[in-house]
Write a structure and sequence with these properties.
Layout lengths: L7 H4 L4 H21 L17 H10 L6 H25 L10 H4 L2 H17 L6 H27 L4 H29 L6 H33 L6 H4 L5 H10 L5 H11 L2 H13 L2 H18 L6 H23 L1
Helix pairs in contact: 2-4, 3-4, 3-8, 3-15, 4-6, 4-7, 4-8, 7-8, 8-9, 9-13, 9-14, 9-15, 11-14, 14-15
Length: 338
Amino acid sequence: MTTKTLTLEEIYETIQSPMQQIEEDLNTFEDLLKSVTFSPAGTTNLQVNDGKKIRAALLLFSAGQLLDFEPAVKAGTAIEMLHFASLVHDDILDHESERRGEDPVYKQLTLKKALLMGDYIMAQALLSLPEQIYTPANQALQSIVSEMCVGEFIQLHMKENVLALADYKQAYYDVNFKKTALLFSKACALGSMLNPKIKPSAQEAFAKYGENFGMAFQFLDDALEIIQQLQQEQDTRVFDAAQGIITLPYIIYAQNVLQITTLEQLSNFKQELALPERLTSIHQNMKRAQVFNQVYEVIDGFLQEANKSLAGINQEHTKQLRRMCDFLRQKSQNIIIN
């Protein structure tokens, strides 16, 4: 029996109206950004409203049925603003050449303006939080920003130093939690706070769901970059590898296939990954060794934990959150395992 392929559009049907409002609010905010930054006339898309807005969707799904969605819309918009601010700063730190097929903000404007814009967006995100949960939401967003910065420090340390493979793997997991999963976690927790029917004791379950979903999301994203190069069958750069970042597929390959045990071996491996002419061969070896199957197993494990965290909570309330796990699992199966 063939399983029906899920789409985000289908899953989002139950939150169509608040999601549309979030999009409108983000478009309005982009116009404000163009104004305060004195953006050149040719600056047509800062990409504030691009992307699938999965974090906002998870917040709305965690909130469930509300009599008034305005506070959830405000919180969802703030979460997406914070996410965008992190991308603006990430692109500067990583010297990204493009973002979603277009020039990143620092290239559209200037480096100084992009730095200031990221800071401005974070401040505006805090100011836009709903009054009903202002104090915990403010604390949550401050925690996210702080941990994102720590995650960047760890990532810089990983780039600039050669660590033992076990230490490197732990650092990689820490970075993914601080830079990605925590934002998912806080989004789900904030959504649950907006529903008076959800007890405080259950809010941790939604936070744990978001954390596990976020980890799976980032592992898939890291694997996709390698899969795209593999499908092109040509020697092109994989950005993470070129930056000296060994993501989960490479860690599994180094540990289980190459059986790297020394700092010298890991250093040599990192140097190889930085050479575009070696990548296709390495990736083909990873495919033959079924590394991507092992990546899928890790992703699936986190998605199972995400669903387990919702046990005991009304199933009708958590239905769409479970469907989001199904969506990510299908995407992993279709792109990684084959």
